Amino acid sequence: MTASSNGFIEDVARARGLLLTRTGAHTARLQPAGEPPAWYCDLDDGTPTGESDPASSVRWVSPALRTLHPAGSPILDVRRVGPQSDLGRIGAWIGRLAGRSSSAAAEGRYAYADPHGILDDQLRHRVEHWPDAAHGDGIVRPAELWSMQVTREGLVVTSVSWWGSAPALDHQIALAVDVAARLTARRDG
Q1: Which of 58, 82, 106, 138 could be disulfide-bonded to 88 (CB atoms 3.0-4.6 Å)?
Q2: What are phi and psi of 97, to 5 degrees?
Q3: Which CA distances in Å does 50 have to 1, 18, 47, 53?
Q4: What does the pLDDT profile of the chain (189 residues) look like in tens digits?
């Protein structure tokens, strides 16, 4: 991990007034000031450690939105379709249980389980359209969401296999903060 390849992290920290902590040779954490922080964002550049060859990842978490929901009834679960394509079928099943047509649960590259309508059209557009970033294969193309879930850990928004893009990092943080605000308003409403 070189300083020049990670300058985008410092750029976003500075622009948003965030605390930046280096948590290892290849990892960092961004978070707003305050204890406990409202959220944190862990970044891993994907450098092989000798024990594994991970993909780069950016993982944003809001612990305040922890939930203990019964199995099969997620508050929010958005995932890339592909290796987890079973989730598309699960999302369709949940959508049918909630009285929605199955086509509303899985659209395009993502499977959506959003029974409470947290994601409006504008937020869905932001889920599906990201700024360019360098990917693990060296090609520059739009970064992509991997998953967005409300779990026992909180709201977790994850992207993988891209690095070096302040606009993509800022996009992920802004998207996560806006979804967290929508979830908080629903919970407190």
Answers
A1: 106
A2: -65, -35
A3: 15, 31, 9, 7
A4: 333 478 999 999 999 999 999 988 889 999 998 888 899 999 999 887 666 667 889 999 999 998 866 666 678 999 998 744 444 445 555 665 666 544 434 448 899 999 999 999 999 999 999 999 987 777 888 999 999 999 989 999 999 988 889 999 999 999 999 999 999 998 887
Both tokens of 170, joined, read 């800022």
3-state secondary structure of 111: strand
Residue indicated by tokens 């450690």: 49
Position of tokens 């193309």?
Answer: 141
- What's the gap between Cα 176 and its chain centre? 7
Residue 103 burial by Cβ neighbours in a 10 Å radius (0-12, 13-18, 19+): exposed
Handedness of CA 85, 112, 75, 34 (dihedral sign): positive
CA distance 65 to 85: 26
